[in-house]
Specification:
This protein is an alpha+beta fold. Helices cover 56% and strands 18% of the residues. The chain contains eleven helices and twelve strands. A hairpin with a 5-residue loop joins β4 and β5.
């Protein structure tokens, strides 16, 4: 239960991290798109305002160009113009570049509205009430009229023919652009919300995928520790029991306790073998198991390993045959291949009875090595074939323990073959027995 709780907590942490990361990415991307959309949308409006302002300045007889222009001008008239005359003078210039989309507002030097091209009373009243700032000259800004009309605007400075200073606001209605922006923002917000909700499920899925190897490794490690503890406890218990029995009879002769001593030695050898195998697997898990490949004469290696087992088989009234067809030296780790053959032959001897046969075929196809070990022994079930390379797996545990098996041999064989970049599998040998197929 504690392990499950730890896994759930780590899964939740991983999911939250992925969710936050995905949300940040989606939100940043959405904000970037919205900014780009707004910039692009209002860029054309601002360009139109500035172009209108430039056109007005280019055709106007009263635009201030610079101080020297005013000093040298011969057209300055000290007579003061009335608002109507000034409006008429300005309107003549505006008519030359008439644009139905543009609204113009003429102000005096104090910022009070003199005239506007839009003949709507509330508009003029509203504009008049708005604060006017001379600091906005040449800048693009935004105003809101009557709570529902939006305008992009700029202000330019003008000088009438009599030398008086005036200001003109140039406005373009952007209600349609505002509506587009609002709709796009709403759509983008909804889309972002949907993506964030989907991110929850995506984060959970990604977290499970990311945690799956870790969970599997954790479960295998826990199972490995439990199995190793159990397997180590058995020989240690036997050795301890036998040693305690010997201590109870200190005056006994060795010959009288030879069976107890022999059993203790057998269990000690089994324990030593198991520890060696566990160390091999641990090195492999830590990627510290090195493969030292070199050109190897497989005929010599096979005979060196098989001959002792062949003699053992004859003593047990079993028949073992060896067929080698290797026409070249192969690039393999000699010691690891020896260990692989020992594991396969050791299993073949253990799980065969009198009069059974063991056939060993070793050959090559170009640079590839093929090892086939067939026996007519007790075989293995279909369910056993699914788990045969798992550590400590033994189909008949009582028989395996009696024969000195640890359930680690085929796991080590699988590791050796995998480190060589090959494959190993077990199939049924018809009509009975087991067939081991190795390709390296």
């Amino acid at each position: 239960m504690k392990e499950q709780k730890i896994i759930r907590v780590e899964l939740l942490k991983n999911m939250l991290f992925n969710l936050i990361l995905l949300t940040l990415i989606v939100s940043t991307f959405s904000i970037f798109i919205l900014n780009q959309f707004n910039n692009y949308l209002y860029k054309s409006v601002d360009k139109e305002i500035l172009q209108y302002k430039q056109q007005l300045e280019n055709i106007s007889d009263f635009v201030i160009k610079d101080e020297k222009t005013l000093e040298n001008s011969n057209n300055i008239d000290d007579e003061e113009l009335s608002d109507e005359e000034l409006t008429s003078e300005v309107q003549k210039n505006i008519d030359k570049i008439a644009n139905p989309r543009v609204v113009t507002i003429l102000r005096d030097d104090k910022g009070d509205v003199i005239a506007t091209s839009l003949s709507v009373k509330y508009f003029a009243d509203y504009i008049g009430k708005n604060d006017f700032s001379k600091t906005k000259l040449g800048e693009i800004y935004e105003i809101k009229v009557n709570g529902k009309y939006f305008y992009r605007a700029t202000t330019c400075k003008l000088t009438a023919s009599n030398g008086d200073t005036y200001f003109m606001d140039i406005l373009i209605n952007i209600n349609s652009e505002k509506e587009m922006t609002d709709n796009f923002t709403r759509t983008l917000t909804i889309g972002t919300g949907i993506v964030v909700i989907l991110s929850i499920f995506i984060s959970l899925y990604l977290s499970k995928r990311a945690m799956e190897p870790i969970i599997q490794a954790y479960k295998k490690q826990a199972e490995f520790v439990q199995n190793a503890s159990h397997e180590l406890r058995t020989p240690l218990t036997i050795i301890q029991a036998k040693q305690e029995m010997l201590l109870q009879s200190p005056e006994s002769k060795i010959i009288d306790k030879s069976e107890d001593i022999a059993l203790s030695l057998n269990e000690t050898r089994r324990l030593s073998k198991m520890i060696t195998e566990l160390m091999d697997l641990a090195r492999s898990d830590a990627n510290r198991s090195k493969i030292n490949k070199a050109k190897t004469n497989m005929e010599e290696v096979a005979k060196e390993v098989v001959i002792p087992y062949k003699e053992m088989a004859e003593l047990q009234k079993k028949k073992m045959t060896l067929e080698i067809k290797c026409d070249r030296e192969l690039n393999v780790d000699k010691n690891k291949i020896k260990q692989l053959l020992v594991i396969l032959l050791d299993n073949a001897i253990k799980y065969t009875e009198e009069n059974d046969t063991i056939d060993i075929d070793i050959h090559n196809h170009e640079e590839k090595l093929f090892i086939n070990v067939k026996d007519t022994g007790i075989g293995i079930s279909d369910e056993g074939l699914k788990h045969i390379f798992e550590r400590f797996y033994r189909e008949d545990k009582a028989r395996s323990r009696a024969s000195g098996g640890t359930g680690l041999g085929l796991a080590i064989a699988h590791t050796i073959v995998k480190n060589h970049g090959g494959s190993i599998k077990l199939v049924h040998n018809k009509p009975k027995g087991t067939h081991v197929i190795v390709k390296i």
